[in-house]
C-alpha cells in the first residue's frame, strides 16, 4: 500500500469521513450496566498500566495514570474480572452485572515477590514496573519513561531522560542532550506533542523541538509512539514523543515533593543551584466529593559550566594540508525555569473537564574566546609557515521559551464517548543586540603551524600570545528573533460494540490547526575605525585576564564590556548590513485540516487497529528577494495546497499471558523545515558569473511506508525480553544541492538550494532486556539489569550536475547511527540505591560537506558516556542523592572523511551534583 497525494476539496473529504464514522456507529447494541473501579497496591498507591479483563466477553481495559478502569454497558450476567500487573499476584473476582451501574472501589494487588509485602511503586524497580506495564498493554509499539524512572538517572531535562530508552538517542549541545532521534531518524523527522497538542519550536529554521528547554520535573510521563495510528496527527517518520502532564488524580492522596541540589563542573569552579517542587490536592467542589484536582509544579535551575574546543570546520586540502583552524574556549551559564498548572474537574464518573498548562524558559548566556589561524598555504602537522592570527570574541544571551495550554472535556454516555479539546502552543527565541564577532588580527611571516591530529595544538611565536600587535579590524553585531504559534481544535467520537466473542471500537474525529512561523534578523558591521577617528585599536585596550584554555595557550581574553562601550558611541544606522538584515526575514503560515476513521477489534488473544487519516495543508510563505546586480529588494511570496491519505494497520497477538507478537504497517508524513521552505532569494555576480542561493517553497513533504514486526516476553515478577524489526521506505528525501547547469539555472555558475531526492531506506533491529534478579536469597536479589541495542542502516541517493551530466552517490541518512545502546546496572535496598548507566552511539553522518565528493562528508565519532547516581534514604520520604555526569569525561569529536582529519573536538569535563528530595509517600 502506498501513500497517495490528492488535491481534492478538504471540506468535502472531511465531511465524508465524519459522515462515514457516524453511519458506522449506528449499529444496535444490547447492554445493561457500566462497571467502574480503581487498581491500587495494598498501600493505596495507584497502579498505571494494569490490565483489567473479562474473559467471557473478551473485553480488556488498561488503567491510566489514575489507576481507573471503566467497562461500558455490559450485558447482564455473571463474569470473571481478572487483573494483571507485572510484579503483582493476579487478582480474580466474580462480577455480577445487573441493570444498575457498579462501582467496585479500589482493588488492591499484592506483590508477586515472596520477599516483599507490597508492590514496589517507587525506586528503580517501581519505575521500571510502571513503564513496562504501559508498554505491554499498548496497542502499538510504545516506549515509556515515567517521571519516577526519569528520577533514577542524573538527567535534568526531557531529552536526556529519553536517551535511556530503546531506539532513542540524543544530539547534544555543549555536552547537554538537546534534540531526540528516534530509530536513527533526525530530530526534524519526529513530532513532539504535549497532551495531544503539537509543541511549537523556538528555533528559527526548524520544526524540531529542543527538549532541553523542558525540565523533567514537570511531567507525569513521556511516551514515544513508534507506530502511527489514524487518530494521531501527522508530522513524524520515526515516532511521536508525547509529553503527558501530571494530574492530582494520578495520586490517591494529597501529594508534595521538594528537591534542592547544587552542582559543580570541572571546567568552571562555580556552584550551580537547582530547586523544584510538586504539589497536588483533591478537593470537594459543587457538592461533589473529591471532584476537583489541582496539581502545580515548578522548577528552577542555573548551571554554570564551560567547554574547550579546537576545530577546522573541514578546511582540508588532502593533498597539501590544512588551510585554517580555530581554538575556542566557552564560558556558559544556562538558566531553566519551568511552571505547570493542571486542573481536573470530575463531577461524575462519566464527565471530565480539564486544563493543562506548561511554561518553560531557557536562557543561555555564552561567551566564546577564540583564536583563528589562517595559514597562507596549506600545511601538515609539524610544518611552519606564514599565517594571519585572528583573536575573536562572541558574546550573546539567547532566551528560548515554550508554552502550551490545553482545555478539554471528555464525556461518556453508555457505550458512546466524545472528546472536545482546544489547544495552543507558543515558542520563541530571542537573541537581543549581541556581539557576533569582534576580530583583532596580526600577521606572522613565519613560525606558525600545528601539531597533533584529533586535538590540534597551535605552534606560534611568543608574540602570538600577547595582546600587543593585534589590531581591531571589525565588529559584527546581531539581533535576532523567531516566533512560532500553533492553535488547534479537535473533536473525537467513539462507540464500543460488545460482540458475542469480543468487542469492536469505532472511532472518528476531525482536527483543524493553524501554525505561524516568523523570523527577523538585523546585522551591523562596524569597520574602518581609523576613518572614524578611533585611536584605541590595539587588543591591549580591550584585554582582560588570560583565557583559561586547557588545550593550549590563547593569551589574553577580550573584554566584552569594552566592546559594547566602543559600539555604544557609534550610530548603528550607519553600519547596518541591509542585505543580511532582510534576506533572512520570513513568515510561513500553515493551515491543516484533518479527519480520520478507525476501528479497533479485539477477540480472544487478538487485537487489530485499522483505519485511515486524511490531512490537507494550505501554506503561505513570504520572504525577500535581493538582486545584487541591480541592488534591488523585492517581496517573494508563494502559496501551495496539498492533501495526503495516511492509512495504517496495527495488530497484536498474545501467544500467552507473558508473550506478545506485534506487527504494523503505517504511513508517515513530515513537512520540510522552515529554513528549507523560506522563499529568500539572493542573486549575485562574481567575475561575470551568476550565483544564487535560495529556499524552496515548492518542496514536497517527506512520506514513508513503515513496517514493524516483533515479539516481547514479560517475566511474571519484573522484566522483559523483546526484539523488534522495522523498515521505513522514505519518499521525497530532502538535501542541499546546486542546480547550476540545468533548467532555468543553466547559465549559472552556482545555484544552491534544497531539493527533493528519490527514495531513502531505513531498516533495523531493536533489542531490549530488563531483568530484576530474584531467587538467590542474598544481595544479588537487589540487582536490576537493563540493556538495549538498536542496529540500523540507511541509504539515500543525492544528485548533482557537472557540465550537463547527471551524477549521483549514495549516503546514509543524516544523524543515523548504525548502533545505539544503553546498559545500566542498579543495586537497591530499602536504604541505598545505586545506578551506573552507559549510553553509546556509533558514528553518524553529521553533514554532507561536498555533494560531489564523499571525502569531505562530516561524521560525528562514536560516543560513550557513563553516568552515576547514588541515593541514600535517610528516612521514609527523604533521600540524599549524589550524581556524576560524564563520569568518563567523554569528549565530542567530529571528523572530515577519516578520523585523523579533525572537524571539531570539544571537551566538557565531569559534573558533580549533591541534592536532597523530600516526598510525602
Percent helix among the residues? under 10%
The fourth-level CATH homologous superfamily is: TonB-dependent receptor, beta-barrel domain
- The number of helical segments is 7
- What's the mean pLDDT score? 88
How many individual domains? 1
Would you mind describing this structure in some detail?
The chain is mainly β and 921 residues long. It has one domain (245-919): TonB-dependent receptor, beta-barrel domain (Maltoporin, Chain A, Beta Barrel), CATH 2.40.170. The protein has seven helices and 50 strands. The strands form six sheets. It has a 22-stranded antiparallel beta barrel. It has a five-stranded mixed β-sheet with strand order 9-14-15-12-13. A four-stranded antiparallel β-sheet has the order 4-3-6-7, with no helix packed on it. β3 (51-54) and β4 (59-62) form a beta hairpin. The radius of gyration is 30 Å and the shape is globular. The protein starts with a strand and ends with a strand. Mean pLDDT is 88; it is low at 1-31. Residues 1-31 form the signal peptide. Residues 504-887 form the TonB-dependent receptor-like beta-barrel domain. Residues 135-240 form the TonB-dependent receptor plug domain.
Topology (SSEs and partners):
Blueprint: E1 5-6, H1 10-24, E2 33-41, E3 51-54, E4 59-62, E5 68-74, E6 77-84, E7 91-97, E8 102-109, H2 123-136, E9 142-146, H3 147-150, H4 158-162, E10 168-173, E11 176-182, E12 191-194, E13 197-198, E14 219-225, E15 240-245, E16 255-265, E17 268-285, E18 288-311, E19 316-317, E20 321-348, E21 351-379, E22 384-413, E23 416-451, E24 457-459, E25 471-499, E26 502-527, E27 543-546, E28 556-558, H5 560-568, H6 578-583, E29 586-603, E30 606-627, E31 632-654, E32 659-670, H7 674-677, E33 681-686, E34 689-694, E35 702-714, E36 719-731, E37 734-738, E38 748-756, E39 759-772, E40 783-802, E41 805-811, E42 819-828, E43 832-841, E44 844-847, E45 858-860, E46 863-875, E47 878-885, E48 892-896, E49 902-907, E50 911-919
Parallel strand pairs: 2-8, 12-15, 30-33, 34-38
Antiparallel strand pairs: 1-31, 2-5, 3-4, 3-6, 6-7, 9-14, 10-11, 12-13, 14-15, 16-17, 16-50, 17-18, 18-20, 18-49, 19-20, 20-21, 21-22, 22-23, 23-24, 23-25, 25-26, 26-29, 27-28, 29-30, 30-31, 31-32, 32-35, 33-34, 35-36, 36-39, 37-38, 39-40, 40-41, 40-42, 42-43, 43-46, 44-45, 45-48, 46-47, 47-50, ...
